[in-house]
């Protein structure tokens, strides 16, 4: 049985799913325009930069001339493919559109709203677009180290709920549980009991930046049901992505809707808010640069490696949290546990157990690499090659067999009846398996109806 793999859209793929009207309203925010611009392919950025200060439409022939020439002996086909992709991205995201110029030739023109707001983000002018507001000195300041610990504890409580949903319902808010249910990371086993799904197991072994981005996307799918505006939430997230870690920001001017959204972000560990009446909040590292290609390096700082890996497939985890113990138990066998040390072993059976839950070998290896102790990081590769190769080989074992749905025919009284039906199924290309000794055959589910009708007609003759 094949398991559906968890896929996480990047910013481009997500924005392409939004309709033109939503994107047009989103582009009213300079922060949103700058975030979108930073995630464009390099050639798309080049096109936008050259058209940003050009008023009328630009001929498509002229745009094509801006593409860098291939190096001597280079591939012209790859250059044409880059041009096609860059143009397609800008069109699908409604950043430019195809028009005709004064001479009737095909041309491109930038989205006026996007161009105007991007200029403000790049050059300044207009109303301040980043979160500012004059604030007096915070009587209860929070250091970057405190914010990292706070964010880590909050986020780990969400992950702990995934591992043990029956025990962790008091540790996280109903809004977080609602998002996890919508994302199908957990499901109701009974009316009062939940269990983790195959997708949830895969989610647990993602790196933290991917977990956060996937969770936010699923939350955004539910904002309309919560009575919030998708555009307002997205614009605020884009502003947060440009915030400074350890700096407090004012809540002045926030309407009730944004304050509700801020409370949700607080519950997930994305911002620190001491109390609503304080009038200030601190973005945590989880949400900084969340829309940027640099987000992975930013969030990796939160993870402190504590795993030592040996070539005999043993794992030593120093001072593991309850969450990490539960995660290691997914793909390894816990051998012994001390107050500050856990020892486990990766075996064929433990890896197969993880594979059955939808986890893939690469996710296990990435998890081990990401959480490796700093002494392990001195080696190249970080995960011993014998261990990584063996995990991948155990995964390949499951791919040696191909599963095909079919219908079993057996208990033929006469050999000629068996041969008649087997030959018919073979001639139709629907025969999956046949054994003349036991007079047993299997036909594909698709060909079952035709074989059954043929057998009925043969019986009447």
UniProtKB/TrEMBL annotation:
GO terms for cellular component: transcription factor TFIIH core complex; transcription factor TFIIH holo complex. GO terms for biological process: nucleotide-excision repair; transcription by RNA polymerase II. The keyword Lipid biosynthesis does not apply. GO terms for molecular function: ATPase activator activity; double-stranded DNA binding. Residues 389-456 form the Transcription factor Tfb2 C-terminal domain. It is found in: Nucleus. Pfam families: Tfb2 (PF03849), Tfb2_C (PF18307). Keywords: DNA damage, DNA repair, Nucleus, Transcription, Transcription regulation. Belongs to the TFB2 family. Component of the 7-subunit TFIIH core complex composed of XPB/ERCC3, XPD/ERCC2, GTF2H1, GTF2H2, GTF2H3, GTF2H4 and GTF2H5, which is active in NER. The core complex associates with the 3-subunit CDK-activating kinase (CAK) module composed of CCNH/cyclin H, CDK7 and MNAT1 to form the 10-subunit holoenzyme (holo-TFIIH) active in transcription. NCBIfam families: tfb2. PANTHER family: GENERAL TRANSCRIPTION FACTOR IIH SUBUNIT 4, TFIIH, POLYPEPTIDE 4. Component of the general transcription and DNA repair factor IIH (TFIIH) core complex which is involved in general and transcription-coupled nucleotide excision repair (NER) of damaged DNA. This is General transcription factor IIH subunit 4.
